[in-house]
Amino acid sequence: MPTALANGISIAYETSGDTAGPPVLLIMGLGMQLISWPQEFVDGLVERGCHVIRFDNRDSGLSTKFDGAGVPNLPLSYLKNIVGWPLRPAYTLDDMADDAHGLLDHLKIPQAHVIGVSMGGMIAQLFAARHARRTLSLTSIMSSSGRRSLPGPTRAARKSLLTPAPEGGSREELVQHLVDTFRVIGSPGFPMPEHDLRARIGRTLDRCVYPAGVARQLVAIAANGDRSPLLQQIRKPALVIHGADDPLVPVDCGIDTASQIAGADLHIIEGMGHDLPPQLIGRLLALIDPHVQGKMARHSQAA
């Protein structure tokens, strides 16, 4: 696995496809790794001529871990965020956007189409706003602008996200814990087959297990606050995709994100929750391909 020294840290990354094709930078979400992108999604972009770049965010996968920062008290951080008290994250989402910028520098890629999911969508938004010259387009999937007035997760989704994995649990217990989590936040209209879900989770656990990084990333999300002023500065082609049945980041968050970016295309997918199920890969690629190829019509619609 190649690594890059970027923004003062080591970033594990992988590239696929024709280096002469449109560069597409994929940014994953909370606690996820570069292999969390469905392989059929990556292969689909490659088949469409794209040069795909995936990487592990800081504090996840094989990239630099911030062990020295300690593990935050999540219940206390949640309460502070609710009442509007300041948080002191180990790093910020801006730092994570700069990691992506540094990776492009390392790869000598001047500009890229930036695609992010969930927390990765937030990082992609910041990248597009803060590094406009390096951005060809933005795709924000199941993400949010961070406005405080937007609805939060359902009670079940919040509980699932904040429930720690069994301490000292076996591999099978860890797999089951994550299966239970994804069943709560996943797509009700497109349930992932049990075998496929367990296989995906197993691959990620075999590569890296790092709960402390998830906790620090959660605090970074909470500390980032409202990105609306930055979203309003984006002048690049923007595509916003969101599930109508997302229990973790409700669909109003995607609608709001699109409303903040001039000319953004909004696509709401019925039955989609907070995951990338195999049944939707073809539809997602069909939405993203014309966007990346510069052929996206300037309108909003439900998918």
TrEMBL record:
Gene3D superfamilies: alpha/beta hydrolase (3.40.50.1820). The keyword Hydrolase applies. The keyword Hydrolase applies. Keywords: Hydrolase. One of its GO terms (biological process) is glycerolipid catabolic process. GO terms for molecular function: triacylglycerol lipase activity. SUPFAM superfamilies: alpha/beta-Hydrolases (SSF53474). Pfam families: Abhydrolase_1. Residues 143-169 are annotated as: Disordered. Residues 22-143 form the AB hydrolase-1 domain. InterPro entries: AB_hydrolase, AB_hydrolase_1, AB_hydrolase_fold. This is Alpha/beta fold hydrolase.
